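Hi team,

Below is the intake form for Metallo-beta-lactamase from Methanoculleus sediminis. Please confirm the fields before the structure is written into the shared record.

FORM ID: S-0412
PROTEIN: Metallo-beta-lactamase
ORGANISM: Methanoculleus sediminis
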Amino acid sequence: MLFEKIKSDILAHNSYIVGAGGEAAVIDPRRDCLVYAAVAERAGMKITKIFETHKNEDYVIGSRELARPTGAEILHGAREDFKFGTGVREGETFSLGPLELEVLETPGHTVESISLLLRDRSVSGDPLMVFTGDALFAGDVGRTDLAGEDKRREMSEMLYTSLHEKLLTLPDSAIVCPAHGAGSVCGGNISDREYTTIGFEKATNGLLSLSKEEFVERKVSERLYEPQYFRMMRKLNREGPPLIYNLPHLRAYSAREIRSLMDKMAQIVDIRSPTSFAGGHIPGTISIWREGLPLYMGYYLNYEGPIILVDDFNLDLDHVVRHFVRLGYDNISGYLAGGFAAWFKQGEIVERSGTWSPPDLAENLDDPSIWVLDVRNVNHREEDGHIQGSHHIYVGHLEEHIEEIPEDKRVVVHCDAGYKGSLAASILEKHGFRNVINLLGGTIGWKAANYPLVKDEERVVSASPPV
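The structure came back. Fields below:
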């Protein structure tokens, strides 16, 4: 039997390939999909089936891309009007040699969500694994807000039924294979466990022990952020994303070319560290560190203007490109040849951001000209506490609330460590703020320096994420 989990870093997306008897199936493939063909080839198997457990919101699905070279059939839940593939219903089974995959309809995260029950008939008729998509995670369950606020209660009720009447009725020994791990935006607090079982989740997952009424109220009141790019993902994944065949080739742009492109709606993304960005950067650029790209590019980049990367040494840009491809940004165009050094060697204008350490902020905290802006997730602010007198706007919603930030103040932005603070500083500068300071170390450094975080006072501009 072939079984392999393929993890996509940062997005915390899990996909799977299973097979026997010379045939294999892929479940929830990513768009850069050659990895599955390589695994199947090593095992001497042919990929004949591709399952999508749901249409997905946080990445571009890879089923069409994988079906092109393999000829495999694409299968997905029949309750959504997909423009490609074949819809499947409760109880349908598919064979891979002695392996059998049975469809369970498990709506709640989305209406068409399915889970796939795996049996190895050569050994036993008992369920061995269940691929749960975004219905059940390790320590968590799927979010139910993405269909809209008006349907949130209905979707929460659906998910409760799917969990308690379908998944939790399986044997305790059944291995749970979810579509996401810790860090994914598709859950509220997914545990950092590689594998789990139905029995372990029954014993440890607090959401599963709630009554239906308690569960629904918990899900209805859950506060989760929805990046703007989710709308594009739903559209692409319903209609079928365009084929890319290979990763895009990045063009090397000179400093002069980039300067001219900035007048033509180009999107310049600086992927260096916050300290490098603060020390000097191209005016009007957005600061998103490499590991933050999948998490935050979807808030601030559009799908039209060419995207150009700025780094120091342009190392391993193919890996960076994968982040863009997985989120459907086929407009990724190129990079600054020679790195940021090429920009200042050309004598171009260099913009700088201010940086402070925690002692710097502590010394100036009572200064009336200082306006402290907390750009963390609101849940982190409430659970961990906040710097006294600070205001809150989540970094992903900064542009929506830009008019609420005083232009006559020195704005000190902070997050947990300084990375999201650099992004926030770049957005403020892009909107004309010229006196912006990023608190390096954020609340982590603040606490390490023995300065207090308080919970008895709230100054929140954007108190909770809109749904």
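SUMMARY LINE: The chain has a mean pLDDT of 95.

Thanks, M.
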